[in-house]
């Protein structure tokens, strides 16, 4: 049975790293002593060690140890033996590139599908979708494929932003970019606003948090999904 938390962000305004999710994570990772952290997205170009230290500090508050995948000689073995996963945010292109480069994306998918708990934020959430093609990140590297884990039957647009009516910026909105994606692609896209997350148990996906999410489907008007909505196949059609 799949068990995932797929969050838009690691940090909401006015709180510390992962702070707003710690009550949820305490329950989600109950009986888990150690989490394998995948720091490949490394925001701002920080080192894997620096990023892992940040995750360790946050999870120490709920008495869970964190080990970075880079601390192991064999990344495949690390994933094979892990009891739980956390993939942090940063640059999705680099994250996906490293997952393919280290040949671990398939084994990670398989372990999560087998029931190993998975927690992702931002880039770590983007890779739960069918492809990474709705990331907001700059293409700083060229991964071998845009295909990701397909653990949920749609794509994620993390940090989804609504148009600001007071802004003088006349460029593309997030909605415009997603509509451009749908000119060439059929995959539904869920815009996850800050502080919102998905709770996935087996094939049931529920929207959590205080804010609604925005669902985009090719050839259809975008719709708002209230919090606590169960996202089923018929929701996506």
UniProtKB/TrEMBL annotation:
<dbReference type="GO" id="GO:0016805">
    <property type="term" value="F:dipeptidase activity"/>
</dbReference>
<keyword id="KW-0645">Protease</keyword>
<dbReference type="InterPro" id="IPR005320">
    <property type="entry name" value="Peptidase_S51"/>
</dbReference>
<comment type="similarity">
    <text>Belongs to the peptidase S51 family.</text>
</comment>
<keyword id="KW-0720">Serine protease</keyword>
<protein>
    <submittedName>
        <fullName>Peptidase E</fullName>
        <ecNumber>3.4.13.21</ecNumber>
    </submittedName>
</protein>
<keyword id="KW-0378">Hydrolase</keyword>
<keyword id="KW-0224">Dipeptidase</keyword>
<dbReference type="InterPro" id="IPR029062">
    <property type="entry name" value="Class_I_gatase-like"/>
</dbReference>
<dbReference type="Pfam" id="PF03575">
    <property type="entry name" value="Peptidase_S51"/>
</dbReference>
């Amino acid at each position: 049975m799949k068990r995932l938390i797929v969050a838009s962000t690691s940090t909401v305004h006015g709180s510390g790293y992962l702070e707003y999710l710690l009550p949820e994570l305490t329950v989600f990772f109950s009986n888990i002593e150690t989490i394998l952290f995948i720091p490949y997205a490394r925001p701002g170009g920080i080192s894997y060690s620096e990023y892992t230290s940040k995750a360790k500090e946050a999870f120490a508050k709920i008495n869970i140890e964190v080990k970075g995948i880079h601390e192991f000689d064999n990344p495949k073995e690390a994933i094979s033996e892990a009891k739980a996963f956390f993939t942090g945010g940063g640059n999705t292109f680099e994250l996906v590139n490293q997952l393919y480069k280290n040949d671990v994306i398939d084994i990670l998918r398989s372990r999560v599908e087998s029931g190993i708990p998975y927690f992702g934020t931002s880039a770590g959430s983007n890779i739960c979708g069918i492809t990474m093609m709705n990331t907001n990140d700059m293409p700083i590297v060229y991964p071998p494929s845009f295909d990701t884990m397909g653990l949920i039957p749609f794509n994620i647009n993390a940090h989804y932003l609504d148009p600001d009516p007071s802004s003088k910026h006349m460029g593309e909105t997030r909605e415009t970019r997603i509509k451009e994606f749908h000119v060439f692609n059929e995959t539904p896209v869920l815009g996850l606003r800050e502080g919102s997350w998905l709770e996935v148990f087996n094939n049931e996906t529920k929207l959590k948090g205080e804010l609604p999410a925005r669902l985009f489907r090719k050839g259809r008007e975008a719709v708002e999904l209230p919090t606590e909505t169960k996202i089923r196949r018929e929701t996506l059609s």
